[in-house]
């Protein structure tokens, strides 16, 4: 039988899914063991047990000075920035994407401009953002928006343009105005695409968030990682990295479930 | 008194003529079948009738009004594909035929209830009441076309344009769609243009059958000339083919 037609059974598929995770864990444990047996005070690859106990300490013990659990404080600060940045981008991306996709005049005006804007490396703008918006929350949220909005606009406007012309003409023959076509035909069909696009832009959004926090912040997941880097606290860094990965994964998964539940009319797997 | 007047229409894309010198008049309530070779410009002609495109020369008037600049309520259309809205249930699709003309594209309150009631009646008529709450993607091709026709009719257009509406259907479904369309026409008395590749279907349903073909042919450059109406058959007498020719203006003459 051809390789392309050979499919694993349910149990074997689950095993295959778990396999790389297990291998990575085992490889890490072995590496850490080798280094620690050579030098018990080695900080580079802390033992899994050390990471676990550090994680427990970080998640439960309040900071002595501020009497707050910094882990949750950092998480909250980062999530607020991320959700604000992604939420505002998604909203603007939808509105501008609809305008570009539906209105030829707006398309002529903005499509080329957005295409050029999206080529600007957002991180290169970071110093400007800090100068213009200060070191507070605003500059971090703005960095995320600058980082992902051009992509969202380009993706969503091309999705609007993909709506078959026939469907738009059909709506016209039913007496729909441009506004009605936008809210009753284009927008509902854009929503699953929006969720898809947001899923794709979550990765860059985290990247920009952590970069901004690393450079100027007084709390946040990225800030903490770059702070404890000075003490080579790999156990803390790894805990935070695992936590960020878990958050990103849960967001992605949540959006996928949402798009399946909320848009039963899409047959395609998004 | 002619209802649709097609006056010396030319349409080219780039410098490639697709249709040229198309002239015809159509009475209100006539059923016009349009046949012709693939790619000769039948869909283009429908797009011109729909005012989705403007002809490079000539004009089309409906009911003596100035030529329309964009598609509107007076002309309904069923394309071969993409004619229903995939994100709305079957019932909502029918309601859309009435409510898209509203400022928000919806009905509210009692008006909405009444419209849903009417939609259910329409669905019962077109035999889709059992799938009223499903999405179009779950319907078969024939059901989707029936829905598209029901939706177009809910808007009560004066002219209905059908582009190979039954092209993808099996012969049995096709026959029941013919009955459906004949009934609807008898009821509404609207003017219908239907493009089809099935001559039998064209003669069975149509009052007239227009044949599109190229009257001039340049052997060195097949794209040099566009197509026009070469035959205009009267198909009224029981729909049997080989009727008398009504016009003989553009028949291809051997050189
Ligand atoms: N927007 C366009 N731009 C350029 N060429 C076009 C456009 N639309 C149609 N054509 C060309 O015009 C010709 C006629 O197309 P049309 O779709 O009207 O043919 P048709 O008679 O409907 O064919 P079929 O029976 O296959 O549906 C085709 O050769 C096509 O390539
Ligand atoms: Mg066609």
Could you characterize what this model shows?
Chain A contains 10 helices and no strands. Chain A is globular. Chain A is 78% helix and 0% strand. Chain A starts with 9 loop residues before the first helix and ends in an 8-residue tail after the last helix. In chain A, helix 2 (48-60) packs across helix 10, helix 3 (70-102) packs across helix 9 and helix 7 packs across helix 8 (178-215). Chain B folds into 2 domains: 1-74 and 157-255, Rossmann fold (3-Layer(aba) Sandwich); 85-156, no CATH class. Chain B has helices spanning 42-50, 90-99, 109-125, 141-154, 171-188, 199-205; strands at 2-13, 16-27, 31-36, 57-62, 75-78, 159-163, 191-195, 208-213, 228-234, 245-247. In chain B, the strands form 2 sheets. Chain B has a 7-stranded mixed β-sheet with strand order 5-6-7-3-8-9-10, with helices on both faces. Chain B has a 3-stranded antiparallel β-sheet with strand order 2-1-4, covered by helices on one side. Chains A and B meet through helix 7 and helix 8 of A and strand 5 of B. The structure holds adenosine-5'-triphosphate and magnesium ion. Residues 42-43, 163 of chain B line the site of magnesium ion.
């Amino acid at each position: 039988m051809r390789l392309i037609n050979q499919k694993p059974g349910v149990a074997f598929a689950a095993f295959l899914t778990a396999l790389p995770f297990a291998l990575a864990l085992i490889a890490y444990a072995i590496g850490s063991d080798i280094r620690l047996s050579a030098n018990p005070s080695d900080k580079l690859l802390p033992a899994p047990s050390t990471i676990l106990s550090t994680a427990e300490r970080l998640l439960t013990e309040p900071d002595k000075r501020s009497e707050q659990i910094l882990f949750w404080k950092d998480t909250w600060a980062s999530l607020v920035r991320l959700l604000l940045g992604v939420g505002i981008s998604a909203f603007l991306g939808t509105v501008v994407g609809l305008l570009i996709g539906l209105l030829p005049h707006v398309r002529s005006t903005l499509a080329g401009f957005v295409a050029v804007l999206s080529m600007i490396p957002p991180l290169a703008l970071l110093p400007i953002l800090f100068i213009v918006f200060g070191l507070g929350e605003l500059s971090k949220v703005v960095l995320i928006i600058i980082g992902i909005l051009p992509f969202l606009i380009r993706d969503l406007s091309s999705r609007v343009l993909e709506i078959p012309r026939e469907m738009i003409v059909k709506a016209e023959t039913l007496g729909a105005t441009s506004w009605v076509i936008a809210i009753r035909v284009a927008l509902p069909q854009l929503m699953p695409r929006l969720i898809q696009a947001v899923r794709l832009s979550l990765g860059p959004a985290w990247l920009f968030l952590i970069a901004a926090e690393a450079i100027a912040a007084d709390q946040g997941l990225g800030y903490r990682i770059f702070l404890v880097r000075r003490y080579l606290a790999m156990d803390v860094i790894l805990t935070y990295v695992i936590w960020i990965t878990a958050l990103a994964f849960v967001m992605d998964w949540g959006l996928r479930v949402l798009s399946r539940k909320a848009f039963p009319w899409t047959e395609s797997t998004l | 008194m002619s209802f649709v007047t097609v006056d010396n229409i030319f349409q080219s894309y780039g410098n490639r003529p697709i249709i040229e010198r198309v002239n015809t008049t159509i009475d209100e309530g006539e059923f016009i079948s349009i046949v012709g070779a693939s790619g000769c410009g039948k869909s283009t002609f429908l797009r011109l009738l729909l005012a989705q495109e403007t002809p490079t020369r000539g004009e089309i008037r409906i009911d003596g009004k100035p030529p329309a600049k964009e598609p509107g309520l007076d002309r309904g259309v069923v394309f071969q594909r993409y004619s229903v809205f995939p994100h709305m249930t079957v019932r909502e699709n029918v309601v859309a035929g009435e409510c898209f003309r509203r400022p928000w594209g919806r009905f509210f309150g009692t008006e909405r209830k009444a419209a849903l009631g009417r939609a259910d009646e329409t669905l019962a008529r077109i035999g889709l009441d059992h799938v009223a709450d499903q999405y179009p993607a779950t319907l078969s091709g024939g059901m989707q076309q029936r829905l598209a026709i029901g939706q177009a009719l809910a808007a009560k257009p004066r002219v209905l344009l059908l582009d190979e509406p039954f092209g993808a259907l099996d012969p049995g479904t096709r026959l029941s769609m013919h009955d459906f369309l004949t009934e609807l026409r008898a009821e509404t008395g609207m003017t219908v243009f239907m493009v089809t590749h099935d001559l039998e279907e064209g003669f069975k349903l149509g009052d007239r059958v227009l044949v599109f073909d190229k009257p001039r042919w340049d052997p060195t450059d097949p794209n040099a000339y566009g197509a026009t109406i070469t035959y205009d058959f009267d198909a009224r007498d029981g729909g049997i083919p080989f009727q008398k020719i009504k016009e003989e203006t553009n028949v291809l003459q051997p050189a």
